[in-house]
Amino acid sequence: MKKNYSIFALLMLASAPLCVSAQQISNSDFDGEWVDCMPWTYLQGDGTDGNTVSSHVVGTQPKGWIISNVAGMASVGMAMGATTVGENVEGYNSASAVKLTNTPNPWMDAQKVPGYISLGTTWSTAMPKFGLGGITINNSDGGVFGGQSFTGRPTGLEFWYKRSRGDDQPNEKTTIVAYLWKGHWTQKDVPVSIVMVGEPKKVDMVDRDRCVLGMDMEGCQGGEVEKTPDAELIAVINVDITENAEEWTKFHANFDYKSDATPEMINIVIASGDYFGGASVVGKDNSFVVDDVKLVYSGGTSGIDGVEADNSAPVEYYNLNGVKVNAGQMEPGLYICRQGSKATKVLVK
After folding, report:
1. With the C-alpha atoms ordered 20, 313, 240, 58, is the resulting torsion angle positive or negative?
2. What is the set of domains in the chain, with CATH numbers?
3. How many other β-carbons are positioned within 10 Å of the β-carbon of residue 308?
């Protein structure tokens, strides 16, 4: 049964000034709807035309986010080598969190699929080859392209996490990347399928992560990169986590702003391992659990909760009838945010 509070009592607690909500990410606590994950990477022989999402379901993912599950290669009407790297687990004071685990391909143990989640579209490519010494993996690449429309200028990013390493690559770091930009970068002829015979499908990829971030493209698959005249990286977070955490631990990092321009897009990538390190550093069973991803606006206050980020008490939200509501599913309007003995009026836009 939902707990009801006297709205008078809540409003009496909410003695602080009205906190106008800044732009946030939907379903950021992962307690909202989870949907089928249909990996975008194209399958050899499945008839996709370069713009069609794969029809192969591989696990589930929180709506609004994409997990790097892969569909592998198409073979006799099935996804050969489909690999699930993300799952729904119990969260930080909530029902759901995302657990990401680097997982070997069931058909090719040498090919370990990195676990990561993003607001953009995840993709991968490789050319496995049979030889006298077994299967070798050539021309592997992958990552994320695109993101979500966004015009805010947050000061930072925060979430709760747990972290563990397997025996394979125990020193593999965890990468956290978030960036804001405007305009577009297009890389020509990026291979976007996994094939053993023939050539992989290729597309012109818009806003590939490495292109937007201005990273070195040496060793990456794909052709030349072009950008629109207004293309600009506005702010970035690119940090590593190297210590394991058996208990829920809070993460916070500030954006490095490179421009005063207004963003048009945002992407967040949370990886279980070394996101930019390449296939050779992916460690089997290295995992990362993440929950309650929030953008922070000025002074360590998230735009949706209006409370001090250092306060570890659970955050609860109530409508003006005193009924508790889910933070990830609040519609525009006025709410009361309660954390411990503090309450704040919150306007969600």
Report:
1. negative
2. 34-296 (2.60.120), 315-348 (no CATH)
3. 13
For residue range 245-256, list pLDDT tens digits in order: 999 999 999 999
- d(CA 91, CA 247) in angstroms, rounded, equals 11
pTM recorded for the entire structure: 0.77
